[in-house]
TrEMBL record:
Keyword Zinc-finger included in the entry's annotation: no
Lineage: Bacteria, Pseudomonadati, Bacteroidota, Flavobacteriia, Flavobacteriales
Hydrolase as UniProt keyword: yes
Protein name in the entry: Glycoside hydrolase family 92 protein
All copies of domain Glycosyl hydrolase family 92 N-terminal, residue ranges: 31-259
Domain Glycosyl hydrolase family residue range list: 265-743
Superkingdom, taxonomy of origin: Bacteria
Molecular function terms from GO: hydrolase activity
InterPro entries for this protein: 6-hairpin_glycosidase_sf, GH-type_carb-bd, GH92_a_mannosidase_put, GH92_N, Glyco_hydro_92, PNGase
Length: 764
């Protein structure tokens, strides 16, 4: 695809920022910084990301390791040494990795233990792109490069002149095997490391093909015991070493692939995805894969940093969930099931926490990638068939993490946006099971913890030993709404009414005396003492000030409970105006999410975590959209930068990035399954969405720029546009949405009753 990018000035800037010529998609790829968010650790997250060298939604990622084996913070920007480049499947440091192994090159005296083989490196001698990684291993005078495919990768190690040059494959601990095949110039084997969510027969089978004969071969056994001249090893933690003499500038290529199915499938993946391709051809294919996806959205701006931030965030949105399926010898789609341990037909995707991604990532897929999302939906149906339940946090199978019943909004939103896949009835049956069956859940995060209480009382009580009960109640109520919406669309009207009624359960936790959501005991009394600043306890990674707004489907109902628009806006304002005080007694220490809120100087607004990310858009519902516009622009320009500390909290499988991508375009999906985007403040002069159906939707913002976040007026396809929402179907039809921006709010734009986005209370 050839797409042209025009970057016209949207504000006064120095000449170094101005870009006035046409740009190709290949140059747009250069705006992506995979190091954005990598300056993180346990105590403070600036993204908690690692540089993922991968193709979009690839089965395998590759990343440099600066940390020890098993450390969830595998690459920390300020570390000084690299231990290897590993195949990784890690969706989050908190979930950690599985099926990981690494390659490393050394010269001179053999160093193979991970603490000894590590080499100093500099970011000045490091190239990091989605499609390519290169680093100079200073201790060994070696340049290591890698470029990915979906299930394989091509390595290139450029050596100095040396009598003793080595490449080693570390198969990691928790069960591994290696076998060196000198005549075939291969290393084969498997690794079994994981952090949970796998059957007993879980293996990641790998094959590494070299283009250079081996002069020597060693393996190591448990305890880093070196076995010179051996060809195979199996145990808890084993590895393989091959050696050769090298000339100055000699490049050794290694083609690596893996499979969760079998060694034969690993070889098939390698032959199919790389085969006889050179390193450059493999790289060109990876580049083309990213060009295709990143080029779907054209952005016009003179601010290079904004472009870098946008495309770096878009890159993150296009990584997860990962493809967990392969193509057999007959090109049939098959997968190893992380639920029943069998090889099954059909799609499977994994490494996703729906508590995060239901909010914006999956609505983005519905907008830009409906065919992909249809495959993901079929994969969800396969999870249900193979485990009896829908996933909520999969990595690679069910993991006990987070709360809610957020597979329902993901499925309903896809269906309502025309993404039907082939398994609609199966998926609807599955979401109903979540809402009706309390027994047999494989882990606490799957299904609905406290379901029987919720269905009997209309809420999950505070005093019955179920943690984060108020948050669960609010999320279940929203999930019930999405079930109702899907049921209505399927013609199941009586069932829909049942779930519309249940979706009003949020009202059971509203405390009129504080105008906040509050835990409630089984006897119907509110929990005491109550501190709205207390994180955790009745809520999840937040406090009452954050979760009170989790009434996505009925903001008008919440406005009515609070006493009207003015009271509602006052409560919204108070979150930003108060100091960043907090109560961390539930955790016993200040968790990183709290600290990230505290240091941003936006009061108690905690954008670094998901529960409150939609809150800024709620001013639109209360007829003060200019406050949404002002605060959206502030978050876009203050809390995101294209740097290693570029996020204000966990990036979380694309969600915090998807907030930026949507919001920079000018709208956001506050309530998936309502088929609406809520209007904010577009950051760019122009954005073009090249939709899958062949249409183009363009958003223009005239007179935009720094200090000009306010919408003065708008038109859609030449007709006055005076609402704070736009339909998802309208976007899919293509067309042009024009905004006129200014430095002062226009308090008469889009403030009528009919201008507000959908609320259940207003739909009756």
């Amino acid at each position: 695809m050839v797409a042209l990018f025009l970057f016209a000035a949207c504000e006064e800037r120095d000449s170094s920022e101005a870009v006035n010529e046409k740009k190709s998609t290949a140059e747009v790829l250069g705006y992506v910084n995979p190091l954005m968010g990598t300056d993180s650790d346990f105590s403070l997250s600036n993204g908690n990301t690692y540089p993922a060298i991968a193709t979009p939604w690839g089965m395998n990622f590759w990343t440099p390791m600066t940390s020890k084996m098993g450390d969830g913070w595998t690459y920390k920007y300020h570390d000084k040494k690299i231990r290897g480049i590993k195949q990784t499947h890690q969706p989050s440091p908190w979930i950690n990795d599985y099926a990981a192994f690494s390659l490393m090159a050394v010269t001179g005296d053999l160093k193979y233990k991970e603490d000894e083989r590590e080499s100093y490196f500099s970011h000045k001698a490091e190239t990091v792109r989605p499609d390519y990684y290169s680093v100079y291993l200073a201790d060994y005078d070696v340049v290591a490069e890698v470029t990915p495919t979906e299930r394989a990768a091509h390595f290139k190690f450029t050596f100095p002149e040396n009598e003793k040059s080595f490449i080693m494959l570390d198969a990691f601990n928790k069960g591994s095997m290696v076998k060196i095949l000198p005549k075939e110039r291969k290393i084969i084997g498997y690794c079994r490391n994981n952090s949970g969510g796998v059957p007993e027969n879980f293996h990641n089978y790998f094959v590494a093909e070299f283009d250079t004969d081996f002069d020597l071969n060693h393996t190591w056994d448990d305890g880093w015991k070196l076995n010179e001249g051996t060809l195979d090893a199996e145990g808890d933690h084993v590895g393989a070493i091959i050696g050769f003499k090298t000339k100055k500038g000699q490049a050794v290529h290694v083609k690596v692939a893996s499979s969760f199915i079998s060694p034969e499938q690993a070889q098939l993946n390698l032959d199919r995805e790389i085969g006889s391709d050179t390193f450059e051809i493999t790289k060109e294919k990876a580049t083309a894969a990213w060009e295709k996806e990143l080029g779907r959205i054209e952005v016009t701006s003179s601010n290079t940093d904004d472009l870098k931030t946008f495309y770096s965030c878009l890159y993150r949105v296009l990584l997860f969930p990962r493809k967990f399926y392969e193509f057999d010898s007959n090109d049939k789609v098959v997968h190893y099931s992380p639920y029943n341990g069998k090889v099954e037909e059909g799609y499977m995707f994994t490494d996703n926490g729906f508590w995060d991604t239901f909010r914006a990532v999956f609505p983005f897929f519905n907008m830009m990638y409906p065919d992909l999302n249809a495959e993901i939906m079929d994969g969800l149906a396969n999870t249900y068939k193979e485990s009896g339940w829908l996933p909520e946090w999969a990595s690679p199978g069910h993991r006990d993490c987070m709360i809610g019943s957020n597979s329902a909004p993901i499925i309903a939103d896809a269906y309502l946006n025309g993404v039907k896949g082939t398994e609609t009835e199966t998926l609807f049956k599955a979401v109903l099971k979540n809402a009706t069956q309390s027994e047999g859940r494989p882990v606490n995060s799957v299904g609905r913890a406290g379901l029987d209480y919720y269905n009997e009382l209309g809420y999950v009580p505070y005093d019955v030993g179920i943690n984060e009960n108020a948050a669960r109640t609010l999320e279940y109520a929203y999930a019930d709404f999405t079930i109702a919406q899907m049921a209505t669309s399927m013609g199941k009207d009586s069932l829909a009414q049942v779930y519309y009624d249940k979706s009003l359960n949020y009202k059971n936790l509203f405390d009129p005396s504080t105008k906040l959501m509050r835990g409630k005991n089984k006897d119907g009394q509110f929990q005491t003492p109550f501190n709205p600043l207390k994180w955790g306890d009745a809520f999840t990674e937040g406090n009452s000030l954050h979760y009170t707004w989790s009434v996505f489907h009925d903001v008008q109902g919440l406005i009515d409970l609070m006493g009207g628009d003015d009271e509602f806006v006052g409560m919204l304002d108070s979150v930003f105006e108060m100091p960043p005080h907090f109560d961390d007694s539930y955790y016993g220490f200040t968790i990183h999410e709290i600290r990230e809120m505290q240091i941003m100087n936006m009061g108690n607004y905690a954008h670094g975590n998901q529960p409150i990310q939609h809150m800024i858009y709620l001013y639109d519902y209360a007829k003060q959209p200019w406050k949404t516009q002002e605060k959206v622009r502030e978050v876009l320009t203050k809390l995101y930068t294209p740097t290693p500390d570029g996020y204000c909290g966990d990036e979380d499988n694309g969600q915090t990035s998807a907030w930026y991508v949507f919001s920079a375009m000018g709208f956001y999906p506050v309530a998936p399954a309502t088929n609406q985007y809520v209007i904010g403040s577009p950051l760019f002069n122009e954005v073009k969405l090249h939709l899958q159906n062949g249409n183009t939707f363009t958003i223009k913002a005239e007179s935009n720029g720094k200090g000009r976040p306010y919408i003065q007026g708008a038109s859609l396809n030449g007709t006055d546009f005076n609402t704070t929402w736009i339909g998802t179907e309208t976007v899919q039809k293509g067309g042009e949405l024009n905004f006129e921006m200014g430095s002062e709010p226009n308090k008469s734009w889009a403030i009528s009753e009919d201008a507000a986005p959908y609320s259940l209370s207003r739909s009756k």
